[in-house]
Amino acid sequence: MHNNKKIKYMAILSVKTRKETGKKTENLRKKGIIPAVLYGPGVKDVLVEVGEKDFEKVFKQTGESSLVDLKIDGEKENRKVFIHDVQKDAVTDKFMHADFFQASLKDEIEVKIPLVFEGVSFAVKDLGANLVKNITEIEVKALPHNLPHDIKVSIDGLLKIGDHILVKDLIVPKEIKIMKKPDEIIVSAVEPEKVEEELEKPIEEKVEEVEKVEKEKKEEIVEEEDQKK
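Above: the chain sequence. Below: its structure as tokens.
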């Protein structure tokens, strides 16, 4: 039986091959062009360049978890790639470099997917709870064409202080396997005092706690040495 499942819509990005390397790529950046490289298992590395505006538009749509239809000048067939390892200038926030990873469409891969929190929590809005996000992205395993751009998390169910959402509560298609322990807390409605108490705890008190732990560890080591004697 043949697998005729169609690959969902992909953003198209046109790039050109480049010869500039090293310091010479700075000239490209001054012209609004981003140097990039394409690579993957069984794939020969290809140095490419892409317009900054074109790249930014596609990157906003796909992030690093959705396939991109990469059109390289001179090639008849487009390549299915992921955008990886995007580098930005720390001062200007402009794109400096990017990788295009050409994965096998037949093999599952592990990718981190961003979580998007939606809805309104009654505990937060009306009871004054603080919304604490413990996990903002989650690693999943799936075939490339089944990977979502993001995973929605509704916080509408956080009605009381202390309510939380676990990894096992996430709603994802059956083709996607979540690579995290099911009982880990993603987000919770926490009593304000508890958060404030931890933040406002005196430095002296924190130092005392550290010293207490260190003292207990030393005592354990001494006991172990005495037992050996």
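The chain has five helices and 13 strands.
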